[in-house]
Predict the structure of Diacylglycerol kinase family protein.
Amino acid sequence: MKSFFLSFKYAFEGIVSAFKKERNLKIHFVIAAVVIVLGALFKLHKLEWIILILTIGIMIVLELINTSIERTIDLITEDYHPLAKQAKDIAAAACLVFAICTVIIGLIIFLPKII
C-alpha cells in the first residue's frame, strides 16, 4: 500500500512542479477557476458541467504532457536538432488546438446564457 500512496504523492509533486514553472499551466488554472465560478453563477445543467469538467481536465492534462515532452527533450540534448524542435512544436500545437476547442465549447455553453 505504501507504494500506492507514494504514486499519488509523486503525481501531486509533478502538478506542483509544473504549476510553479509553467506560465501556460497557471493561465489554464486561472481560466478554469473563472469558468467554474461562471458555471455556478449561471446554474449550469449537469451535462454542461460534465462537458466543462472534461474540457478543463483534458486541457490541463495536455499542458502537463507538453511540459513532460519539453523536459524530456531538454534532458536528452542541449544541442539544437530539427526533430527536437518539431517534437516540442507539435506538442505545443496539440495544446493550442485543444485550447481553441475549449474556447468554442465555452462560447456554445455561455453565450446563450449571457445573451
Summary: Residues 2-114 form a domain with the Helix Hairpins fold (CATH 1.10.287.3610). The two ends are 52 Å apart (CA to CA).
